[in-house]
Specification:
The complex is a heterodimer of chains A (about 325) and B (about 525).
Chain A lengths: L1 H8 L14 H5 L8 H11 L1 H23 L18 H8 L16 H36 L1 H14 L4 H11 L4 H10 L1 H17 L2 H8 L4 H9 L4 H24 L9 H7 L1 H4 L5 H28 L7
Helix pairs in contact in A: 3-16, 4-6, 4-16, 6-7, 6-9, 6-10, 6-12, 6-13, 6-14, 6-16, 8-9, 13-14, 13-16, 14-16
Chain B lengths: L1 H29 L10 H5 L2 H14 L3 E5 H11 L4 H8 L10 H15 L4 E5 L16 E7 L2 H10 L2 E3 L15 E5 L13 E5 L5 E5 L6 E3 L2 E3 L13 H6 L1 E5 L2 E4 L5 E4 L1 E7 L4 H4 L1 H6 L6 E4 L1 E5 H29 L4 H15 L2 H14 L18 H27 L2 H8 L4 H18 L2 H6 L6 H6 L8 H7 L3 H29 L11
Antiparallel strand pairs in B: 1-3, 2-3, 4-9, 5-6, 6-7, 7-8, 10-15, 11-12, 13-14
Classes of the chains: A mainly alpha (about 325), B alpha+beta (about 525).
Chain lengths: ~325, ~525
């Protein structure tokens, strides 16, 4: 290297060096590339090409469930009186109503386009999932952090968890939906009133694992309050755990809503669960299968996409993968 | 260790009691009690005052209130001798308005009011409901009754005190003449003709006639001395305890030659060993008179198929075994050949099961199983074919396999980076040896904890699977009870689940401690 440079430039050995004046300000700088946490998260996330595909699928799903119903006005009973328009296969429906995107899944029991019904249902189901996840995660994570950190709270909360955890969820939900009418907000209330408890318990276990590390001990010695230690020292450590948890929680609300609707305890809005419940009989009727498999396929796509994006984002938000 | 377990059991019982209290508050205080009349045709048929008294009697049946009707009170007075038969009619007849009461009636109504108001009841008097022409409407007759809401504390206490019933010779009302009360021990059960050796204890004055007996049914030895009452059903399975609803056999009757106490022999499904006391039944029915010699006439019939619990358990336990047998080895292989083809396929499968709603893949399995493999997709109790068990078992096993695969792989990979593995590798052990002898043993410890839970919860059944394949199992009992407002069953089933949870966690801890000698519950500050 040195010999090569010398023969290339023809300079003497001494002339290859240049004088640098000492600067106090410069010497204080640390010569490492600037590290931004969230930039690194997205760099790692987009390094995997599968994620780009899945993310665009997620965008597609969101566009279809929020923008598509807003652009087309969907009235499930518009074709109610059209006797010949019910339970049609895609081909027949396009022949009957004219060619259009909304007939590609055929028509349903009251002549409504299954495709529109599915995306309107998807909007309700996704909204429910996001709403419940937002409420449950906020309460669950904050309380879980305190629960794990304070030993006094731990004793009480563990007993509460043991008792409330044993009350069947279906019972709580059905009692609530009988108390109030089974609307969207009742459902959110029912799913969040005890839903945060299991999230808080999960976070509590994670906190217990890292609570007694030295830096927390040091913080405590310096007189930092428990809540501040929980929020400032422990929560940042658990970003990837929380994102991973969110990845399992979001699809689980959609699945749970489908389950509740199937056993007849769902909400009154035509969510994906209600669509599946209503079309159960269509599954075994030849020619009507799309009415059932349409919503089932869409709900599966939504949950898988949400889960995979969340899991990979969770992996990417772990600083150990940022090398 | 024993002290620790005892402590855990006591704690578990306490939390089960709390669960029952919570559920009773949910069910009895929060739910609108008017809902019970939703599908009640009798309610719509009755009118006026009759509807009010009907409402009250139903509230009592569903366990909301204590309710006493005036005419029942009079009947009781006659029975206890306070009132003569002659005065009965006069006392029981309520005037259209209080002024029109006869003297005897007024006296007894006053007594009734005083007696029940002192106990915290509200006494309600409904005057006759008349049409414009002065005649009394249908169901508009005057009525008097006392009612009070059951206090929560007494409801909880009576539930737990009534949970275990010990049969005794004073069960039948002391005033009833049923001959000499007592227990008889015999070595030769009279039901087998009195010659075959079969010990039994027969009671008179008890609830059950046969307190201890042997028969050909599993578990061969049966006892009725101690019975469990989890909660009586009202709408789902009228008058029958939850536990019995779950454990009674279902399906078609199995007839066999039964010789009744009178000597009458007939093809019947009655299991005479299960006879319980039914007051006055012998006199009322000629059919009973021809067969029985005493009032122990209420028998359970033998049916050919398993109980609800039985079906759920058979399906659940087989799928659990399949899940452990397949899930653990696949999880180990996935970790062993991490990032290999098996790991990738396995991961896709796990993601599929976790993310997709269970309803969707169960229907998918049903569609594939029905059309590709030609398996029966609906359960038929009377069919002897074992093939109908296949799809429910597969539908239950496939998700549990995914779950076990996921955790086994996770724990194995966590262990793979431990120092002891590096040490073993540097010591020259082969990879297979390290995996089978070292990592596997450590990784399996957390999974062992879940084994009792998966065995015990096999009994409760799976709601969706059983519904999709029409399995007559225990899975839908709770939802059915909620839909029919059967409060007794709701409380009973919830308690059953709570007990299973408590027991399975304790058993899991014990099992884990016995598998892994490092885990000890005795040392303080574990």
């Amino acid at each position: 290297m040195y010999e090569e440079l010398k023969s290339k430039t023809g300079l003497k050995t001494e002339e290859l060096f240049a004088q640098v004046t000492h600067s106090d300000a410069e010497s204080e700088k640390i010569a490492a590339p600037r590290y931004s946490y969230w930039k690194s998260v997205f760099r790692v996330f987009f390094r995997n090409k599968v994620n780009i595909v899945i993310l665009s699928l997620l965008m597609f799903v969101i566009v279809f469930s929020y923008i598509y119903p807003a652009l087309t006005d969907y009235d499930p009973y518009a074709n109610l009186l059209d006797v010949a328009g019910k339970h049609l296969s895609p081909g027949d429906a396009m022949e009957h109503f004219g060619v259009g995107l909304k007939w590609i899944l055929g028509s349903g029991a009251s002549g409504e386009p299954t495709f529109d019904a599915v995306w309107n249902g998807a909007k309700i189901s996704i909204s429910l999932a996001f709403m419940c996840a937002a409420i449950n995660m906020t309460i669950g994570v904050l309380l879980g952090a305190v629960w794990g950190f304070s030993k006094k709270v731990d004793i009480i909360m563990t007993e509460v968890y043991n008792i409330i955890g044993n009350v069947p969820m279906i019972l709580i939900i059905s009692v609530l939906s009988m108390l109030f009418s089974p609307t969207f907000w009742t459902m959110v209330f029912a799913l969040t009133i005890v839903g945060w408890l299991s999230i808080a318990y999960f976070i509590r276990t994670q906190v217990v694992i890292i609570r007694d590390r030295e830096y927390n001990l040091a913080s405590r010695c310096l007189g930092t309050s428990t809540i501040k230690i929980a929020v400032k020292n422990i929560l940042p450590f658990m970003t990837s755990v929380i994102v991973t948890l969110l990845a399992t929680e979001l699809p689980s609300y959609i699945s749970y809503e489908v389950f509740l609707a199937y056993i007849g305890m769902g909400m009154s809005d035509m969510s994906l669960g209600r669509l599946i419940y209503a079309a159960e009989a269509a599954m075994v009727t030849p020619g009507w299968e799309l009415e059932f498999w349409g919503p089932v396929a869409v709900v599966s796509i939504i949950t898988i996409v949400l889960y995979v994006v969340g899991q990979n984002l969770g992996d990417a938000s772990d600083p150990r993968t940022h090398m | 260790m024993a002290k620790y377990i005892l402590q855990r059991i006591v704690k578990g019982i306490l939390s089960a009691i709390c669960v029952v209290v919570l559920i009773m508050i949910l069910v009895y205080s929060l739910m609108d009690r008017g809902n019970i009349f939703g599908g009640d045709s009798n309610y719509t048929k009755t009118q006026s005052n009759a509807r009010v008294t009907y409402e009250q009697s139903r509230y009592q049946a569903f366990g909301y209130v204590d309710y006493v009707n005036y005419s029942d009170y009079i009947t009781r007075q006659v029975k206890s001798g306070e009132l003569d038969e002659e005065d009965r009619a006069a006392a029981a007849f309520i005037g259209q308005t209080p002024e029109k009461d006869s003297e005897t009636a007024a006296e007894y109504i006053k007594k009734f009011t005083e007696e029940y108001e002192s106990q915290g009841y509200t006494v309600v008097r409904l005057d006759a409901d008349k049409k414009t022409n002065g005649r009394v409407k249908d169901g508009g007759q005057a009525a008097i009754f006392a009612t009070r809401d059951k206090p929560m504390a007494s409801r909880v206490i009576s539930y737990f005190t009534g949970m275990f019933f010990i049969d005794n010779i004073h069960f039948v009302d002391e005033d009833t003449d049923i001959g000499e009360r007592g227990l008889t021990f015999t070595l030769h059960d009279p039901l087998y003709g009195g010659e075959k050796f079969s010990p039994a204890i027969i009671g008179n004055g008890t609830k059950h006639k046969y307190l201890v007996y042997f028969d050909k049914k599993f578990p061969y030895f049966h006892q009725n001395l101690l019975t469990l009452n989890l909660g009586e059903s009202y709408t789902v399975n009228r008058g029958v305890d939850v536990f019995e609803t779950m454990t009674a056999s279902q399906g078609t009757y199995v007839l066999s030659s039964v010789s009744y106490p009178t000597g009458h022999v007939e093809q019947s499904a009655d299991d005479l060993h299960t006879a319980t006391y039914a007051e006055g039944s012998l006199e009322l029915s000629e059919m009973y008179a021809a067969r029985f010699t005493d009032d122990y006439t209420n028998t359970i019939t033998t049916k050919g198929s398993l109980s609800k619990l039985g079906y759920s358990f058979v399906i659940g336990i087989i799928s659990t075994i399949i899940a452990y047998v397949l899930g653990l080895p696949i999880g180990i292989l996935m970790a062993r050949f991490k990032d290999g083809i098996l790991d990738k396929i396995g991961t896709i499968y796990i993601v599929f099961i976790i993310a997709v709603p269970s309803l969707a893949y169960i229907f998918l399995f049903k569609a594939i199983g029905g059309s590709v493999f030609k398996l029966p997709t609906l359960f038929d109790m009377d069919s002897s074919s074992k093939l109908m068990f296949v799809l429910p078992i597969v539908s239950l096993a496939l998700p549990s396999i995914a779950n076990l695969m996921k955790w086994m792989r996770r724990y194995m990979i966590d262990q793979m980076n431990s120092d002891y593995v590096k040490f073993a590798r540097s010591g020259g052990l082969s990879e297979t040896e390290i995996f089978t002898k070292h990592i596997w043993k450590n990784a399996a410890v957390p999974l062992v904890h879940g084994i009792p839970a998966s065995i015990l919860f096999a009994m409760t059944g799976a709601i969706i699977t059983e519904r999709v394949y029409a399995v007559p199992g225990a899975g839908n009992l709770l939802t059915q009870a909620i839909n029919k407002y059967d409060n007794g069953v709701i409380v009973g089933v919830a308690l059953f689940y709570a007990i299973l949870t408590v027991v399975s966690i304790i058993l899991g801890d014990i099992l884990m401690a016995s598998v892994d000698p490092r885990i000890s519950f005795t040392s303080k500050g574990r």
